[in-house]
Amino acid sequence: MSANAADAADGRPEAGLPRLRVLLAAPRGFCAGVDRAVRVVEEALKRDGAPVYVRHEIVHNRVVVNGLAAQGAVFVEELDEVPPGVPVVFSAHGVAKSVPLAAAARGLTAFDATCPLVSKVHREAERHEAMGHHILMIGHAGHPEVEGTMGQVRLGAMTLVQSLAEAEAVAPPPGPLAFVTQTTLSVEDAAEIVAVLRRRFPGIEGPAKEDICYATTNRQAAVRAVAAEAGLVLVVGSANSSNTMRLCEVASRAGARAQLLEGPEALDLDVLEGETVIGITAGASAPESLVQGLLARLGEHYALDVQERRVTTEDLTFKLPVALSA
Ligand code: SF4
User: Which residue out of 124, 145, 147, 210 is catalytically annotated?
Assistant: First the structure.
């Protein structure tokens, strides 16, 4: 793809503007799980009218959350903040088993927007527990996906491993062992941690590949390709988005400076000083409108030569919950 975003942005001629080559990572932005989660909230609003409560940010992006709030979604952190008789949606990150049980006990109508690829990890954890395995969960403490996955099994059946150092030190109870992973980890970090666990515990069971999802894997490969050619990579997304932060790390490791941007207005033009080639990507929860807005903003100051670097194509979509798909 090639486009002159200076013209596209506001119709001004590019004459006199400094040139800037922009490499757009592809795939970038929304994944199938985020797309489904947003549609779950929209369809629940259509079906039942506002308000629809959503436990936790449906996906980790302010623009998405604010857009749904404007349509009547109300975001809360805990189920006891949901008033009686109001439908509630569980976010894409998944929830502990206790949450839908508590919603049912209160008679709430619940719609589950958990990404099917996170649900798959939940089922793996259940299976390992049923087989008597102690489970090591590779992930980041405090992330809602990790809390949801750890909440699939009884307390004490799973131990969190966050780093190589923790993989070296972890002391699980004697007996059979398995591992699962958060879906949005750095592919490289996870592989190193799994290698340590396999060395220390040769019989450990786990997925053939880590549980890192296709979207995380593809976006990391794309940003790596872009970072190899660019001095600076602008990563569009939110700081509480795990997969977005991993894109920053991957870009840095590939030799580029990485700058996280919540949106176009957050761009500090000083970071572009001295750059002639930059990359742009977006986390799986960041809408494409933010990338286009960033290009428009850049186009006010530079004559842009925009090229896409596509490492693979994606055509996955997920069905809505049955209650919302009629
Ligand atoms: S990043 Fe992966 S696991 Fe998370 S919502 Fe998207 S597809 Fe699902």
Answer: 145
Instruction: Record the pTM.
Output: 0.94
At residue 4, does pLDDT exceed 50?
no
Domains in the chain: ranges and CATH:
2-30+214-310 (3.40.1010.20), 32-112 (3.40.50.11270), 116-212 (3.40.1010.20)
**Residue of 36, 143, 213, 238 to test ligand 1 pocket, by largest number of atoms within 8 Å of CB:** 213
- Per residue in 38-77, pLDDT (tens digit) is 999 999 999 999 999 999 999 999 999 999 999 999 999 9
Does residue 145 have an active-site annotation?
A: yes
User: Which residue has the CA at smallest separation from atom 6 of ligand 1?
Assistant: 33
Give the ranges where the chain is alpha helix by DSSP (H). 5-10, 32-48, 62-70, 98-105, 116-130, 144-150, 164-169, 187-200, 214-227, 242-253, 288-299
Which atom of ligand 1 lies nearest, measured to the CA of 59?
5
Q: What is the DSSP letter of 84?
A: T
In this model, does residue 244 exceed pLDDT 60? yes
